[in-house]
Amino acid sequence: MASSSPKYNSNSLESSSIKRIPKDGTKWEQNEEIPRLPGETSITDKEVIYVCPFNGAVKGRLYVTNYRLYLRSVELDPVVILDVPLGVIARIEKMGGASSRGENSYGLDITCKDMRNLRFALKQEGHSRRDIFEILTKYAFPQSHNLPFFAFVNEEKFAENGWMVYNPMPEYRRQGLPNEQWRVTFINEHYGLCDTYPSLLVVPYNATDDDLKKVSAFRSRNRIPVLSWIHPENQAVVMRSSQPLVGMSGKRNKDDERYLDIIRDANGQISKLTIYDARPSVNAVANKATGGGYEGDDAYPNAELFFLDIHNIHVMRESLKKLKDIVYPNVEESHWLSSLESTHWLEHIKLVLTGAIQVADKVSSGKSSVLVHCSDGWDRTAQLTSLAMLMLDSYYRTIVGFEVLVQKEWISFGHKFASRIGHGDKNHADADRSPIFLQFIDCVWQMSKQFPTAFEFNEQFLITILDHLYSCRFGTFLYNCESVREKEKVTERTLSLWSLINSEKAKHTNPFYTKELNRALYPVASMRHLELWVNYYIRWNPRIRQQQPNPVEQRYMELLALRDDYMRRLEELQITNNSKISNSSASSASPSQMMSHVQTHF
Amino acid sequence: MLSGSKNSFKIQQHEPGPALRGPKSSAMNSRRNKNCQAFPCIPGEHVLEAAAHVRKIVRSRDGKGSILGTLYCTNLRVAFVPEPTPGDAVGAPRCSTRLHSEHDVALLCIRRLVAVNSFTKAKVLTASSTLKFIPEELILYCRDFRVLRFRFHDSGLEPRACQVTLAIVQAQGSSSVSAGMWYDTGAIRNLENAWLSTEESSSSSTLLFERPCDWEKELRRLGAAGWRVSPVNERFDMATSLPKYLWVPSRLLDNELKRAFGHFNARRIPRLCWHHPGGSDLLRAAGFHADSDPEKEDVRSVEALMLAGHAQCVIVETAVDLPSPAEIQLSYLKLRALCLPDSSVADEKWLSALEGTRWLEHVRACVRKACEVAVLLAERSRSIMLQESDDRDLNCLLASLIQVLSDPHTRTQSGFQSLLQKEWVVAGHPFLQRLNLLRDNDREESPVFLLFLDCVWQLLQQFPASFEFTETYLLALHDSSYIPFFSTFLFNCQWERDRRNQHRASNQIYAPVNGWREPPPLEILQKGGRLVKEKGGPYLPTIWDWALRYTTQQRSQFRNPAYARSRGSTTVPNGKSAPLGGDKLEAALSGSGTMYLFAKGALSPQTHLFPWKNGSLSKKGWWRAQSSESLSEQDRSLRSSPSGCPLQPEGLLLPASVGPLIRLWRRCYLRGSQEVQRGLFASTLGELAEELDLLRGRLTGEGTC
């Protein structure tokens, strides 16, 4: 053990995977069915030893289905249970050989995408691990074996249909669009203009479809500047795009220049258009070598360009790797803070938040329209626009509103979930993988921590989203863009994650939520105020986890129930009292009158 | 020294110092400025200077703002009184009579004064400095991590700005110069009188441990049957730094007891702190005296004291693993420098700079050690003695922290205050030296007490529903330790505290009974005076009189609405204590020896009852060698034990002390920074609690009609 002193769990309701069975639990059957979703089928099972980094070796039976890996310990007190969707598996390795010595040295080592590793030891005789290795590999990486994602065989039923949550037209209408300055265009209906954009786009009224086509030639992967959000009062807008194709020779494009000027002009302000290039300036310059670049002063005199210094996907991936090294399996003890600093994870979070704050502030206080882009406009750009929108628009801070935000800014605008997460793909070292979406959720968590009453959803909501980002149980995060999703008929053939969440909303609701309209939230993006999200990154460590459920939340729920009870009893009493003394003129306020005096928060 | 500039003022020109001026001149000042009459002085306080139309700069996350008002400099404090805004109800009670409000700062709490003018660099002002420009902004850096900023009227040429600035500089300078004579200044004497009237308002449920009945009451609460209250030190003739009353084993007579004193440093013998319902006893004592002779017969009473009727006694060397007071001070200074808004540390280097202060490391060490001892206490019936060389610093911290972990009663506000009285105030923690309230000697300064508050805050973070009080309360306590008007933190031990107050009593001339203002009629005076003498109570109030400084509204934020009174009894944890230790630990303990040494998380048997003679206490090597092994055994046994639950049935809290869970107390240390963080709790929880009270009231009303 790297940690060298007695530590007592803060929470220690054992790890969620360890359940205590009463001593007289003889009814517990070894062969009891493992939990299965409709559509889930058992593939195999095997005696293994689970080498738990926290509690030592545990003898148990490992079950593999087409959805999950499930382990139950042979010992009943405490019974150890592991329940891991195969989708979180990034890599399966064989450890040790047939002749390896030492206890539990022969078996499988599984690296997961959710900050943990699993290690199973098997008997060395008779190549016992070969079958299980092959089966696991096949079902964990279905895309590499011509198998469908589990999402396509999942037969769950939910009361809510999550696919109905987002529909671009009502969402734009909610924002007051189209209006005199902005129109909805169907130019991309068949993904002819840009194959990674959604079919429906909002563009300046004064730009024709023909203009858009010309502009698309000058933007990387044809991702032209389109509207993400419009300020309800000052009409300033948040636009998103990819980089201009300036190249080494410093090419210019009159159509692009004019298009940006139309955007600047649309909210009737004389100020310049503000362009936020999410990259560090050196990277932006370097991109010229591959045909990209940024908007130069001479070509765009009416625009101001700022670089936001956010690093690329490779830097983020390495940073998270370092973070995992210091928190799993053991938490770095001796120099925790400097180790944390050396991962730079929080520093990246800070830069993303700082960038989003600038965007939001420019739109809200500066009353100026902004254009956000990075290289291709599907990673850092999505982070910035969605976070800025979260700061500016309280609708996105509700459960459904946040689902809309993710659906719109991330899924429909082509954040490459398939490449970044590597769903069902065995190529664990793929350089395209990167925790960009995780970083976004972390930023949201930081905001919810600083504004505990501003969000309708709780921490569990964010963790659930991240769990199913990997699980492949829902179609929500599958594939890279809308055009592919349409081809694969995702909405018809799979379920949406929002179906699950919206069917059990109470579990994901923040009891302290106070509805507030039209207040822009600016989190403090300073290292002094950012925190590591312990409940996510270190959640597998049974000694770290905080008390769950949060006792303060629980207490609040109790008090709410108590209030309802009081209200009911008060009403009853009043009815009986009123009937008793109906002749008396003494009138007492009814509970409903009462409520007008007492602040209610819902 | 006077430069040619017409705007140059030399501070010395204002001699004699304002503090030395009589009330007459202050009256003159008052006449000079109409606003002064509006200022609610406390008796003995007089306004030295005032400036109207000053803006106090308040920054919040909602933007930058300021409050318009008048800035006062008195002989005790710098105060800012906001101008009533039209929205305020006429005659709304002002809370400005309170000594501590967010706008006030005691002169002794000001650490640094900086004057800013847009044309010159910021200038740090000391009593001997000259002010060569008219300040536009005055920045007060307070010892309690607050930073107050005042902006003078835009015209900038207002002479008031200079005058009030100079007055503050001068008053602040003389307040520390005259610190040695603090008690004898007229101000403090009058102040004392003024407090008397409010004494009744002190929360009577807090045990001050100044009278034997408090000790008896607490002993009954603990159910410590084998113990009694001994008045052996009633006249402080056994040990001046110890409390008057001690808890000692019942069967040990005072005569035998007296023999034990000589064996301990400063005669601070082992005595009971807390009794675990499972039978264990927690004791604290100073180190063995160097001249103590183990061959002497009276060593038996020492033995009887330490074992306290148990078969085993575990000696916990408090200083091992914990920082020394000097280290704590060093770390605290670094932390304060780092947390200042103008700290030069780059944001990217913040985490390592924070680590570099070692403050959190010290917090972690304390939490961990307290946790280990709390487990030892719960494990089996034994006596555990915390031993620190002088028993006045980290023993206070450790003894009280262990009780907070073990005894739910100490997590109520009155229980916590009683605990602080018992283990810190009357136990002789040298508050005056450590907090250096009078700023007369920096050498002994060390915020051991503030480190303790930080530890408690950590527990509050990890167990948010287990405490009756809130972060706001801890913050108020933190701030109180910088206010030099209370007996609690103004003395080094109870003997000093008593002596000072006795002295006052004999000089007592009058005792106003109704309020701050004027001397009451003669009869009441005499009555009151007699009353005071009979009661023999303190003349300076304790800080527990929260009503003196905090409004009802502010005090309501001391109560944690999420507090879930522990199931079962609220007084002591119930009897059954599950054995926490593993078999191996038990086996190690069942050996023949009766004395064990506990350090680095491991127990080692002591062959000699009095190890100070064979020097084993100083030979650190031998137990370290074996400690790592037994440590991991204990670790494992603790993990696999069924008692992993943090809130044990008997109310034991076992906090985690790993890096990510020991956090910086931002609301305290980062207060001076520009971004203000909003409170710990969602306001809705408090509001809901209020609403429930209202409904409950209505419900009873309806029920009875």
Give a nutshell description of this structure.
The complex is a heterodimer of chains A (602) and B (705). With 602 residues, chain A is α+β, with helices and mostly antiparallel strands.
What can you tell me about this protein's structure?
The complex is a heterodimer of chains A (602) and B (705). With 602 residues, chain A is of the alpha+beta class. Chain A has 2 domains: 99 residues, PH-domain like; 377 residues, no CATH class. In chain A, 34% of the residues lie in helices and 14% in strands. Chain A is built from 19 helices and 15 strands. Chain A has an 8-stranded antiparallel β-sheet with strand order 1-5-4-3-2-8-7-6, covered by helices on one side. In chain A, strand 3 and strand 4 form a beta hairpin. In chain A, helix 6 packs antiparallel against helix 7. Chain A is globular, with a radius of gyration of 27 Å. In chain B, strands 5-4-3-2-10-9-6-7 form an 8-stranded antiparallel β-sheet. Chain B has a 6-stranded mixed β-sheet with strand order 13-14-16-15-17-18. A two-stranded antiparallel ribbon of chain B has the order 1-8. Chain B has 705 residues and is α+β, with helices and mostly antiparallel strands. Chain B folds into 2 domains: 168 residues, Roll (PH-domain like); 348 residues, no CATH class. Chain B is globular, with a radius of gyration of 27 Å. The N terminus of chain B is likely disordered. In chain B, helix 8 packs antiparallel against helix 9 and helix 14 runs antiparallel to helix 15. Chains A and B meet through helix 7, helix 8 and helix 18 of A and helix 9, helix 10, helix 21 and helix 23 of B.
Index terms:
heterodimer; A: 602 residues; eight-stranded antiparallel sheet; B: 705 residues; alpha+beta; 2 domains; globular
Structurally, how many domains make up the residues of chain B? 2
The number of helical elements of chain B comes to 23
Largest interface: A-B, 75 and 69 residues
What class would the helix/strand composition of chain B place it in?
alpha+beta
The Rg value of chain B, from CA coordinates, equals 27 Å
In total, the number of strands of chain A is: 15
Query: For the report, how would you describe the main beta sheet of chain A?
Result: 8 strands, antiparallel
Estimate nothing, just give the exact number of structural domains of chain A: 2
Write out the strand line-up for the largest beta sheet of chain A, numbering strands in chain order.
1-5-4-3-2-8-7-6
Subcellular location (chain A): Cell membrane; Cell projection, Filopodium; Cell projection, Ruffle; Cytoplasm, Myofibril, Sarcomere
Domain Myotubularin phosphatase (chain A): 162-537
Domain Tyrosine specific protein phosphatases (chain A): 343-390
GO molecular function (chain A): intermediate filament binding; phosphatidylinositol binding; phosphatidylinositol-3,5-bisphosphate 3-phosphatase activity; phosphatidylinositol-3-phosphate phosphatase activity; phosphoprotein phosphatase activity
